[in-house]
Amino acid sequence: MELASREEEGVTVVTVRGDINAATSDRLEREIAGRIAAGQRRLVLDLGDVRYVSSAGLRVFLIATRQTVGGAFVLARPAPAVQGVVEMAGLLFVLTVKPDVAAAIAAAKPA
Predict the structure, then answer these.
(1) Residues 95-105: what's their mean pLDDT?
(2) Is 80 helix (H, G, I), strand (E, B) or coil?
(3) pTM over 0.90
(4) Options 3.40.605.10, 3.30.750.24, 3.40.1180.10, 3.40.50.2000; CATH of 2-108
């Protein structure tokens, strides 16, 4: 798994490439936790290049959602397989998912 990040319109965009599974989820969790610890409470996770997310990855998404209270945590560009996992887990009522990065940034920006 590869991670890259950038700031855009006051929102931190973390781009993920590769699978998010038991072997890689700790790294993603540390990346997100580090951003939050640094005061970045508006995060977008760009999943456009992620083919697979396991339950370990879903756990990271849920933790990030809880840790960004008062901010925003938004998933962007999930592939159909990733979107399906999120839906099957019943997490669409907890997670914010947008079809592209621009919509995710708009959803994460302060009102």
Answers:
(1) 98
(2) helix
(3) yes
(4) 3.30.750.24
Predicted confidence band at 40 (pLDDT cuts at 50, 70, 90)? very high
User: Which H or E run contains 29?
Assistant: helix 25-37
Q: How far is CA 110 from the centre of its chain?
A: 17
Amino acid letter, residue 95: L
CA-to-CA dists, residue 15 to 1, 85, 90, angstroms: 10, 19, 24
User: What type of residue is 76?
Assistant: A
Enumerate the domain spans of the chain. Answer: 2-108
CB proximity list for 2: less than 8 A, separation 6 or greater: 16, 17, 18
